[in-house]
Amino acid sequence: MLNKKYIHLILTDIRFWILIFFVIRLIGITNAPLEVGHNWRQCLTNMIARNFLEGNNNILYPQIDMAGEKNGIIGSEFPFFNYIIYLISKIFGYSHWYGRLINLIVSSFGVYFFYLLSENLYNKRIAFNSGIILIVSIWFGYSRKIMPDTFSVSLTIIGLYFCYRYLIEGSLINVILFFLFTSLGILCKIPALSLMSILIILLFIKSIPLKRKLAIGIFTILSFSLIYLWYFFWVPYLLNTYHYQLYFPKDIIEGLKEIATLIPETLEKFYFSSLQSYIAFLCFLTGLVLIAKSKDILLKTGIVLFFLAFIFFIIKTGAVFPLHGYYIIPFTPLMAFITGYMLSKINIKYQYILLLIIAIEGILNQQHDFFIKESEKYKLSLENIANKTTNKNDLIVINGGQNPQQLYFTNRKGWTINDTDLMDKEKILSLKNKGASYLFVNKNSFNENLESFSPIYQDQYYNVYKLE
Questions:
Q1: What pTM was estimated for this model as a whole?
Q2: Does residue 101 sit in helix, strand or coil?
C-alpha cells in the first residue's frame, strides 16, 4: 500500500499531471482533421507535409494544393513542423493524424520546461499552479491539433529555459540550445517572438556577469537574423516568384482601424479564449493586482515588456487576431503564470480546490474538439472518389469556399469555390481554361443539378463532372 506521504509526492509532481493529461489527450488522436475548429488550418499544415512526401522535399519551398494552375509554392512560416510530419510519413507511410501526436509530445515538454523555468525563477508552488493552469488552458485543445502554435511557443519556452541555465551556469551547450530552440520556435510561428521581449530585463540584473549577457545578446541577434532572413527576405521572394501568400501583415494604422471595429472579439481572447475559464481569468486579474502591489520590480517590468510586445503583434495582425482564437496562445503562458502566482497566495487547501474547478471548466469547454461528428466523416471518401474518376495530376474544382479541407481530402490540386459560383457557367469555364479537368460538387451544401455539365460519378454526397 502506498502511504499518504508518497501519494502526496506523486500528486504534487507536475510530471505526473503532464503524463495524465497527455494520456487524456490521446482520445481521438488518430482522427483526421474533420473537427469543426480550424480544420482548414490543420489541412493546410498536412498539405505542405504531404507535398514534401509526394513531390519536392526541399524545406525552403513549402507547397499547397489550392493554388489552381500555379505550382502552389507559398510564402508561409518556416515549415519545420510540417517537415517532421513528412519525415515520419517517410518511415511509416502517410496518415492524417501524425501532426497531432507530434504537437502533443512537444507541447507536453513545453509545459514541463515552463514549470522548470517558473520553479527556478520563483518557487515550486507557483510553478506547479502555473503548469496546471497552462495544461487546461487553450493549450489543452490546441496542443493536439495539427497546427504549429503551441508547438512553436513550446520550443521558444524550452529555449528560454536554456537561456536561464546559461546565465546561471555559463555552460556553452546551454547558450547553443537557447539559440537552436528559440530560433526554431519563432521560425515556426513568428508570434512566439513576443516571448523574447522578457530578455530585456537582463540589462537590469547586476548579478549576471557581463560576459554572459553579451553572449545571450550575440546569440539572440544571430537568431533574429535567421528569422529576418526567412520572413523578410525569403518569404517575399517566394511571394514575388510564385504569387501565393498565407498571411497579410498590416501597417500600424490599418491594424489599429481593424482592431477598433472588433474590440469585443479582441477582449474575448483574453477573458475567455486564453485560459478557457472565467474563474481562472478572475484569478488572473487578482494576480495582476497582487503583483502591482508587490516590490518585485523585475517581474513587473517583464510583464509590461511582454504585454507591449504582444500588443504590437496584435496590431500588426489586425482583424486576424480577434477572428482567430489561437493567436492568443503566445500570451497564455504569462496569463497562466500570473494566475498561478495568485493561487500560491491562498491556503493550500483552497488552492487545490480552485485548480480542480478551473481544470474541470477548461476541459468541459474544450472536450467537444476531441470527437468527430458522424456527419463529417463522409469527406474521407473523397480520395477514393478522386482515384476512380481522375488521374493524380488532374486539376479539379470543388465547392469548399475558402476552406481547403475537401480539396485536401481528394489529394488533388486545383481550386475551391463558393456554392454560388457553381451557377456561374462562365466562372467554371474560366477555370477549365486554366487547366481544370473535373468539378466535384458537395451535395450537402449544393444539391441542384448543373444542366451545363453531365455527371460521371454520383453518390449520396458528391457529384463529379468532367469539364468538356
A1: 0.95
A2: helix
Q: Pull the grid cell for residue 266.
A: 479582441
- Say yes or no: 386 and 362 in one domain: no
At 78, list the grid cell: 518556416
Query: Are residues 279 and 423 located together in one domain of the fold?
Result: no
Query: What DSSP string runs through 295-357?
Result: S-HHHHHHHHHHHHHHHHHHHHHTTHHHH-GGGGGGGHHHHHHHHHHHHTTS-HHHHHHHHHH
Domain that holds residue 420: 374-466
Are 378 and 276 in the same domain? Answer: no
Are the beta carbons of 46 and 60 closer than 8 angstroms? no
Task: Indicate the residue among 338, 353, 370 that finishes a domain.
Answer: 370
Please tell me whether residues 352 and 396 are part of one structural domain: no
Residues 357 and 397 grouped into a single domain:
no
Are residue 331 and residue 406 in the same domain, yes or no? no
Closest CA to 367 of 131, 136, 176: 136
The verdict on 414 and 356 lying in the same domain is no
CA 165 to chain centre: 27
Sign of CA dihedral 27, 30, 35, 39: positive
192 and 270 fall within a common domain: yes
CA pair distance 161, 116, nearest whole angstrom: 7
pLDDT in tens, the chain (468 residues): 557 778 878 888 999 999 999 999 999 999 999 998 889 999 999 999 999 999 999 999 999 999 989 899 999 999 999 999 999 999 999 999 999 999 999 999 999 999 999 999 999 999 999 999 999 999 999 999 999 999 999 999 999 999 999 999 999 999 999 999 999 999 999 999 999 999 999 888 888 999 999 999 999 999 999 999 999 999 999 999 998 877 667 788 888 999 999 999 999 999 999 999 999 999 999 999 999 999 999 999 999 999 999 999 999 998 999 988 899 999 999 999 999 999 999 999 899 999 999 999 999 999 998 999 999 999 999 999 999 999 999 999 999 999 999 999 999 999 999 999 999 889 999 999 999 999 999 999 998 888 888 899 999 999 999 997
Domain count, the chain: 2
Asked whether 461 and 442 are in contact (CB, 8 A), the reply is yes
